[in-house]
Amino acid sequence: MIVTLTANPSLDSTVELATRLERGAVHRATATSTDPGGKGVNVARVVAAAHSPTVAILPARADDPLVTALADRGIAHRVVPTAGPVRGNLTVTEPDGTTTKLNEPGHPLDATMLGALARLLTEHADHARWIALCGSLPPGAPDDWYGQLVRALRPMPCAIAVDTSDVPLRALAAGFPDTAPDLVKPNAEELAQLTGYDAVALEAAADAGDPSLTVRAALTLLDRGVSAVLATLGSAGAVLVTTEGAWFARAPRITPRSTVGAGDASLAGYLLATVAGDDPARALQLAVAYGTAAAGLPGTALPRPDQIDRDAVTVTALDVANPGPRRPDTDNPRPDTASPSTTVAAPAAEY
């Protein structure tokens, strides 16, 4: 089972535009959609669509539209009651895939609610292969709450993944190695926050086929107690560094529609692959395939297994001592079918 915690869930509304977004202008939407959201909820949606056991843990009223949507979609969930509604997030997407997000701060959580969420996690930990702590923290949660949860969960048999950013991410890292999870899933900006590397340089080098900067940055986290780093790098693909080695996966060229949830889909793909017993290279391949598929879907839609093109992702094993490309994984050839005149690389924002 894959259990997710979303401490700051949301109802995600998306507005698709036919033209470029202009500040102060009047725009007419070509399509709109609303889906249950928050990073952990998104991971659970992808896992459930793959018919793999999952439980989404979150704070919300029992009659909140988000909870109703989860029930309607058959996604198992456990809820800690709150007095107010979940936050609403608005995403505006442009024809080239550029994504603009407006996120509300979320409903405040007090110590009683935080304690109830932590108890739900420990109740599920005995039956979970993974517990994924995902997303921002709402008002009222201490900055180091994820670190507290990692400490509490570490004696349990589950593995722990964390996907967050900014203050909660830095607070988590401040406690390494004591708060180091089994997996962290940063994008380039988040990896830069953790290591001091330049986010633009990380993505640019990987896009040019040289993932060595990302590998070196990830290795600093392994030195501090993290077991694995899944660094998603937008259109460049992703890098996985574990105690077993390092791998670089190139994303296929696509026509992007929305990057919302692409990073969450990547995390879900990786977790699904590890639950299935795949080796690290195959797990990375599925992660990038899921992230790529998500970027090609409209709004806050997330991919089903039948929308995944795993074989379109090339995986290269890297020499950690000299982490430039060493050899392609011969089991994962990349078809050269994309035409630059008709497709563009997916934007980097959400991978």
General description of the model:
The protein has one domain: Ribokinase (UDP-N-acetylmuramoyl-L-alanine:D-glutamate ligase). Helix content is 32%, strand content 24%. The chain has helices spanning 39-49, 65-72, 111-125, 145-153, 166-174, 188-195, 199-207, 212-223, 262-275, 280-295, and strands spanning 2-6, 10-17, 29-37, 54-59, 77-80, 87-93, 99-103, 130-134, 159-163, 183-184, 228-232, 238-242, 245-250, 314-319, 322-328. Strands 5-4-1-8-9-10-11-12-13-14-15 form an 11-stranded mixed beta sheet, sandwiched between helices. The chain has a 4-stranded mixed beta sheet with strand order 3-2-6-7. Helix 1 packs across helix 9 (262-275) and helix 6 crosses helix 7 (199-207). The two termini are 24 Å apart. The model is unreliable at 326-351 (pLDDT under 50).
Task: Briefly say what this structure is.
With 351 residues, the chain is of the alpha/beta class.
CATH superfamily: Ribokinase
In angstroms, what separates the terminal alpha carbons?
24 Å
Number of strands: 15
Annotated CATH architecture: 3-Layer(aba) Sandwich
Question: What is the global morphology?
Answer: globular
Kindly identify the CATH topology: UDP-N-acetylmuramoyl-L-alanine:D-glutamate ligase
Strand-pairing-aware structural class: alpha/beta
Strand content: 15-25%
Largest sheet features:
11 strands, mixed
* Cross-sheet strand order for the largest sheet: 5-4-1-8-9-10-11-12-13-14-15
Model regions low in confidence, pLDDT < 50 over at least 5 residues: 326-351
Mean pLDDT: 89
Helix and strand string, N-terminal first? EEEHEHEEEHEHEHEHHHEEEHHEE
Keywords: ATP-binding, Kinase, Nucleotide-binding, Transferase
Region (Disordered): 318-351
Family: Belongs to the carbohydrate kinase PfkB family.
Domain Carbohydrate kinase PfkB: 8-305
